[in-house]
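Summary for the steering committee. One of the milestones for this cycle was to obtain a three-dimensional model of the protein with adenosine monophosphate bound, which we needed before selecting residues for the alanine scan. The sequence and ligand used are listed below.
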Amino acid sequence: MLPDTGCPKASKKPPMSTQIEPKPSCADPFDPSSIPLDEALRRIAERVQPVHACERLPIRECLGRVNNEAVKSPYDIPPHANSAMDGFALALDSLAADGISELEEIGIAYAGRPFEGTIGQGQCVRIMTGALLPQGTDVVVMQEQAEVSDDGLVRIDGSHSSGENIRQAGEDITRGDIVLDAGARLNPADLGILASLGIGQLQVKRKPVVAFFSTGDELVSIGEPLEPGKIYDSNRYTLHGMLSRSGVDILDLGVVPDELDAMRETLADAAARADLILSTGGVSVGEADYIKPALEEIGSTEFWKIAIKPGRPLTLGQIGASIFMGLPGNPVAVMVTFSQFVVPAIQLLAGTGMQRPALFRARALDGLRKKPGRYEFQRGIATQDENGLWQVARTGKQGSGILTSMARANCFIVLPDASSGVEPGDEVDIQFFDWSL
Ligand code: AMP
Ligand code: MG
């Protein structure tokens, strides 16, 4: 893992416990040793600590980065009362409650070029949007509601009130307000707010580094011939895609053969360079599996069966300060476990804290078969019906190797532990795909 230095106010990283006592679970009636999804998330949260190191960057480069320390506003925004409209600034007292008042126009206030004088009774100033409110005025009448007569007088009726069309000083941000929390991921509006405060640089956490590799003797990389029994490695490409939108730096370590030495070397190399190491494949029971012995030699490991489908087997380990997550090999299971477990782990590393994706309610267009006792993540296409309500159809075959079921989908249909299936017309939860954090 990268050296974690140079960040003020960083607390020491607590050591990760290496062993987890097996917990009895009733989550999956077919496999009593499996753990529920929430329990797996809780254990991940216990182990993954935010990166400490920070860097100071020009704010344009901070988009999508995680803020290190809360930012307080040094000013009121807007800094002064100003006009929200093009019109006429005046004192409300100058207007008769009934009938039309005629005012003398004594100057113009432009945005950035204030009117210097004071406006007296019966006077007004033409004012542009964003211009400083002239002294002695408390209302801006929009130009559409005023009439300039042939002799140059401004005619306004009595239907106006004090404060109309005026943006008060500090109405957006008051001096001393926290405008950006520690741990906030910066969005475009945040960049604008920082700029409005004259802040040109910000201290953000360094990006987590995520290394990933595939395992399996059946895998060949693109460009190599496809001999009988071999398949092209697709997981590294879906992982590359998902990680590229996750605000991390990525290291693609290729395909690692099913050999102990190669596995140990790859893991040690990855641990020296990355905060999080992901592998796919080789975590099913009974495989020619070298991840487990290699991890045990140079780190620690736990094998979990999680009560979800697809994506049941998951390995969590640690090598030095780096976290290892071994995902299943099946391409859909990779994407499901990435969305449910890797994304939260990246959020924790990045320093934003775990943020669970929102669930929306939708009407199922298909019947969905399911056994109780585990979460299922079926793939769906959500659309809105003629009343604007969400409805969701299943994307055909749902096998965990059928990647087209993901490619055609825009959401997971999330069927919770207790569900024993869905009839057409039932309400279900959906989780929209969003690989960006
Ligand atoms: P495993 O978890 O290694 O038993 O793999 C489960 C299934 O996923 C097998 O059919 C593998 O061939 C397939 N698989 C594993 N890794 C990959 C990969 N990188 N790309 C495509 N398929 C894979
Ligand atoms: Mg395999």
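Key point for the committee: The first strand starts at residue 54 and ends at 58.
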